[in-house]
Amino acid sequence: MVRRVDVTDSGRNYGGLSRQQRVALRRNRLTDAALELFGTQGYSSTSIERLCSTANVSTRSFYEDIGSREALLIALVDRLNTAALRRLDEALEHTSEQPLVVRVVESFRAFLAVTCRDRRAARVFYVEVVGVSPVVEEWRRAQRRSISALLTREAQRAAERGEAESRSLHLFGLAVIGAVNSLAQEMVHATVPGDAISVDEICEEIAYFIRSGLTVRTAVAPTN
């Protein structure tokens, strides 16, 4: 009797796993290693050899599965961003009947709960990813545009309800995101206990931004 050997379109199975599954496992291990090393030592101080050693992956597999250190950084921040956006969408759903300021603040709180879940994640997402290369900067711009679009959409809906001013909100959305990024960077850089910034404090500033920038202003009658 001839023994049947399972073969996928991409190659032979080993240990019950297809080539695609093995690649996915190696990519996950490398991404986990990147979170640890980029988040503690820094992106520029972490070599491909150190990443491979930490992930128990050969350098050959690294280049075949990932391609470059830059591509691994993007894979890591994209993983964090995808999880954070999922939590953000859940927050919007749970606050569907709440005022605009509550919806926006709770959405950012959910997003930050993922991207700032520990110091490593916050350092990678808000510090190490800055200024790496034009490719990474384009990823950052696309990410900001995505969040800005969500914020603009919510503000426009609030304006239709008479809850917020009806005006162009694209730049305002980018300004809020820039403020959040700056505060998150300060949170990472803070080393003195008294200078530490919390997610709650960032959310308080977001609330102030929203109330100041979007709240409908009541006209004041001129005095004689």
UniProtKB/TrEMBL annotation:
GO terms for molecular function: DNA-binding transcription factor activity; transcription cis-regulatory region binding. Residues 24-84 form the HTH tetR-type domain. Keywords: DNA-binding. Pfam families: TetR_N. Residues 47-66 bind DNA. This is TetR family transcriptional regulator. It comes from Nocardia alba.
